[in-house]
Amino acid sequence: MKALNKEELLGRVVLSTAGRDSGKLYIIMDVIDDNYVLLTDGKLRPESKPKKKKLRHLRFTDIIAEEIKKDILSGKRLNDSAIRSFLQLNGI
């Protein structure tokens, strides 16, 4: 798989493949460096307390939360209820 740049990662839905949260879905809200990202699910990991996770412990999906990605790129504060509803509406 080719390396994704920061803009391609933001707003993408990912599946955790390691740790206590294995099998849980998140949305990438920030990229720390080449190895780590910050994740949110709007519930257990709200925008105010995101989860730091290694990229190699994630499986990427083709789903991108476009509205959430726009908010991230424009610097607007994320809304946890919008994150939760996106994950629920898409059957995730």
What key attributes describe this structure?
5 strands
Structure description:
The chain is an alpha+beta fold. The protein has a single domain (6-89), classed as Roll (SH3 type barrels). Helices cover 25% and strands 30% of the residues. It has three helices and five strands. It has helices at residues 6-9, 66-74, 80-89, and strands at 12-16, 25-31, 36-40, 51-54, 58-64. The chain has a five-stranded antiparallel β-sheet with strand order 4-3-2-1-5. A hairpin with an 8-residue loop joins strand 1 and strand 2 (25-31). The model has no long low-confidence stretch (mean pLDDT 90).
Short description:
With 92 residues, this protein is an alpha+beta fold.
CATH architectural arrangement: Roll
Return residue spans where pLDDT drops below 50 for at least 5 consecutive residues. none
- The count of domains is 1
For the largest beta-sheet, the strand count, sense and barrel status come to: 5 strands, antiparallel
Number of helices: 3
| Helix-strand sequence | HEEEEEHH
Structural class: alpha+beta
Overall geometry:
globular
CATH fold category name: SH3 type barrels
Number of strand segments: 5
Strand content: 25-35%
Helix content: 25-40%
Spatial gap, N to C terminus: 24 Å
What is the CATH domain class?
A: Mainly Beta
Q: Strand order across the biggest sheet?
A: 4-3-2-1-5
Mean pLDDT: 90
- Integer-rounded radius of gyration: 12 Å
